Amino acid sequence: MQPSRLAALRFELSRQGLDGFLVPRADEHLGEYVPPNAERLAWLTGFTGSAGLAVVLAEQAVLFVDGRYVLQAASQTDPAQWQRKHITDELPQPWLAGAAPGQRIGYDPLLISEEGLQRFSDAGVTMVPVEPNPIDVVWTDRPSPPLSPAEPHPLHYAGLAAAQKRDQVAAALREARQDAAVITDPASLAWLLNIRGSDVPFTPFALGFALLHADATVELFMAPQKLPEPTRAWLGDGVTVQDRPALSQALERLAGKRVRVDPANTPVWFAQRLRQAGGVVVAGMDPCLLPKASKNPVEQQGARAAQTRDATALCRFLHWLDGAAGRESELSAAQHLLALRAALPGFRGESFAAISCAGEHGAITHYRVSPETSRPIRADELYLIDSGAQFPDGTTDVTRTVWTGPDTPPAELRDRFTRVLKGHIAIATLIFPQGVGGAHLDAFARRALWQQGLDFDHGTGHGVGSYLSVHEGPVSLSRLAKPVPIAAGMILSNEPGFYAPGRFGIRLENLVLVQPANFPAAAKPFLRFETLTLAPFDRRLVDAVLLDATELAWLNAYHARVLAEIGPRLDADTRSWLRAACAPMPR
Amino acid sequence: MQPSRLAALRFELSRQGLDGFLVPRADEHLGEYVPPNAERLAWLTGFTGSAGLAVVLAEQAVLFVDGRYVLQAASQTDPAQWQRKHITDELPQPWLAGAAPGQRIGYDPLLISEEGLQRFSDAGVTMVPVEPNPIDVVWTDRPSPPLSPAEPHPLHYAGLAAAQKRDQVAAALREARQDAAVITDPASLAWLLNIRGSDVPFTPFALGFALLHADATVELFMAPQKLPEPTRAWLGDGVTVQDRPALSQALERLAGKRVRVDPANTPVWFAQRLRQAGGVVVAGMDPCLLPKASKNPVEQQGARAAQTRDATALCRFLHWLDGAAGRESELSAAQHLLALRAALPGFRGESFAAISCAGEHGAITHYRVSPETSRPIRADELYLIDSGAQFPDGTTDVTRTVWTGPDTPPAELRDRFTRVLKGHIAIATLIFPQGVGGAHLDAFARRALWQQGLDFDHGTGHGVGSYLSVHEGPVSLSRLAKPVPIAAGMILSNEPGFYAPGRFGIRLENLVLVQPANFPAAAKPFLRFETLTLAPFDRRLVDAVLLDATELAWLNAYHARVLAEIGPRLDADTRSWLRAACAPMPR
Lengths: 587, 587
Prior knowledge:
2 copies of one chain form a homodimer.
Chain A (H helix, E strand, L loop, with lengths): L1 H14 L4 E5 L15 H6 L7 E5 L3 E5 L4 H7 L6 E4 L5 H8 L4 E4 L6 H9 L3 E4 L4 H5 L12 E2 L2 H4 L3 H14 L4 E4 L2 H8 L1 E2 L12 E5 L4 E4 L7 H7 L3 E4 L4 H6 L5 E4 L6 H9 L3 E4 L5 H5 L3 H25 L8 H13 L12 E4 L23 E6 L2 E2 L2 E2 L2 E6 L7 H18 L2 E3 L4 H4 L5 H4 L10 E3 L8 E6 L13 E4 L2 E4 L3 E4 L2 E8 L8 E6 L17 H18 L5 H10 L6
Parallel strand pairs in A: 1-5, 3-4, 5-6, 8-13, 11-12, 13-14
Antiparallel strand pairs in A: 1-2, 2-3, 7-9, 8-10, 10-11, 15-16, 16-19, 17-18, 20-27, 21-22, 23-26, 24-25, 26-27
């Protein structure tokens, strides 16, 4: 079957006078989760991972994937057709410049940002925009786009009326002397208009586009079937609704206007269409990103409530896990946690596919458990569970790593676990001035590992939405973080780890809320982190000798808080387990 | 006198059809120190600070300076002619866009980088290149350019023959498929050709330009008088010499070639001239910067030797200082230290103007002592001395802050001093993986201050040259550091501080050398810092209770090393003082 797909695409490319074509794993919103109609990469190659890029030339076809997908790409694609390359070992841009010098390489301008396109042009590749996508021409049984209804996100969760949000963002546009902004991130739409949906898994938004005008009105482009009457009424007078095909003409109406377009997160199609129409494209960050990232007091209170409910399920799960070795599997454990969460008031689904992994699977950072991969949870090994939930008042994301017992863990594991914990505590206790970005703080989570020549190969943390994406920009704790200052109200994950390939993995993750730090005499404002997530860290894996007095005091105070806040919400059995799990550790 | 200068400039501008003109404090090398013939800003405005920008319009003239020069600018310029603005409170680019909408603003393309120019264009200012500089037309008694002779920098200091350096850098150009690189930084020239000079104060290089070709030949543009026969012979066959005026034609000969030009550090004139001539300008960092920053083993050994010699002078000075309160002044102290250094073998001058400041002057980060500003050193206050020297085997830069006694310092000062010291030790003991940049490490120097809502308003460290600039790129320890990885062989300063305006200042600075950290089992290479500078920290100001066990151990080990390495090189009196100053501190 696949041969004919690749051959059909090549035939279509040559018909259009193209020498090659890019097939990224992307939809028109450049989002993390992609609806079935946008799964072009999977349709063409067979590869179903969440990130990848195929480059189809006349004589060769290459699939670029990152480290977590090397094995999966090899097993899912036909080696007779596809070369597989590790995207960080060999960047696609210089490879393509060398493999196809002077050739015309097509791309779908709805599936790549202006900055992404620029990287190919800078490498010397001749890039040709193609509409419609040649794959859509040959993909005859392509699914329809999702049409789940959008629903109001009520004020007692959102905390701020959509009209006020539109006013606030429009004021920022006017301040920058911009007439409008293009909104292509469905999470921005969801925040701005106080609506939610279910077009993709895990993230409760409705796919759509919008133009926000400097007068605070919004043109929303969304299939009318997705907007039942109550939702339309909820949107209010300032929002007009048009179907997706009206978008192109709406951009043409912006001739002569200064329009903000995000060069990193918006498909380049928008900037191209605006320029053709005589609009002035001003590169700038999606104006919803910063206000969305800083949660208002109602959202903050919602986050605390959601975390508390979520913690009761997690504590029950950790208690249950204590006897799981030899009896349960990675898959049954994930299913048990999901069942415990599903019973919680307000549970709307997982915020991502839980990572449930035992022993050597723990070292696979993005391990996905399935009936095929699941392995038993055995005695005397590490078990790692990274999971989260969507509630209307908040999104959760938590990782714990536990020892399955019954014996004491080996010294190496306790050393590594404690160093990861030291990194976690370093972030949790940090105080820092306003203006600092995530790139400046990430190293605190690593120092205890670095001192032994150890490290972990992912960022320390990511932003988290309010009943929205569990991976939310623009701020992260990472060497690669954008230079955007961390601000009060942001929710970030604090998740250092350590991974020994083929042996074990450790990750310790809480969510933290950025709060003002109170120094009345300070010359400038300072910030601190309030830890939101409440669940014990496995004391059997802590080597208290490696903790200094401040770190040990933090751990004991955190455990006391977990017991005080979650204990009363648990059945007697789990509460008694939690009391032991939260007992103060001596030096 | 000044009125006629500004009036004469305005007349010349209107003659050339310009509405305004930029006068930066810059020479054709965009360097830190500027020869007298390039002191156009001082000639026009009277302001002699080391950084500033004048904007001359028909009806107004504005001088932009940073925080350290606000008072000096006010005292040196005529308020009837010049508005003075704080450059970080009001950026010149948006100010100019607002003050002169649609007007033609001239600039000298030899005095601004491509990135600097871009910031004005991005703000919407219409920028017009002007040659020759209109100031030069009206500055009738402008000095001649300096003509100090360039001298060979022998191999036992340089460590690597110029021919090998040229081969190495040319190979990097070929790898990037570039035909040539423009070299406008005299420090790069000095490193590449193994020559030194004395055209500007403090930095021992000869002003000049070069084109480095991919075949490893160099066209050097420098006044022939500056190259006596032995220096010419030393340059060798691969280097041809032409006078400065031949530069323009040489760029024209690069038509059709791909030429690397540094967009941040090279005057935009070069890129403009190359493009006019049909050359392809490839934006890229000066190819000498990275190899120059990573000192070779001979330079590293030279640095250690220079530091050891320098330390004997500094220890003698600190001993002398112990009885200086009430008797000496900021100026006499700086002169005494200079005299002690001048007696050292190989001393070639200061590496910058020493910052010698007592009490409240310590809070002025770039305080410059002069007969007018000098104040007595009094009892029971802080005295800060930041100074350095040029030796042919190395460049030094060291800061110590001492208590003048006789009473015990107040608790506040000991607290602040110890927190600065904790930051200094955090950097000194850091181990980190290759690939990390200075922006990721800077915060370690601040954490102990941040925890109390305190901070300091400068970077933690800068690169240091080898008998070259004491402020050397491309790497620094700073939130604003370029994203260039720290690499083995680099020399950086480690200089956290704390400043209480109007009261006191603290800064503790050693130079550190980046070394490989030896972890045989590590999955990737790690780096560490070797502290090069050897002089005691004032134990009277250390509150050992605030130090954890590791920090106290570092301090005591460092002092033991200072005593062991410097003690034997001192007279008996100073040695006995040093023994007390380096005595181990108990908890």
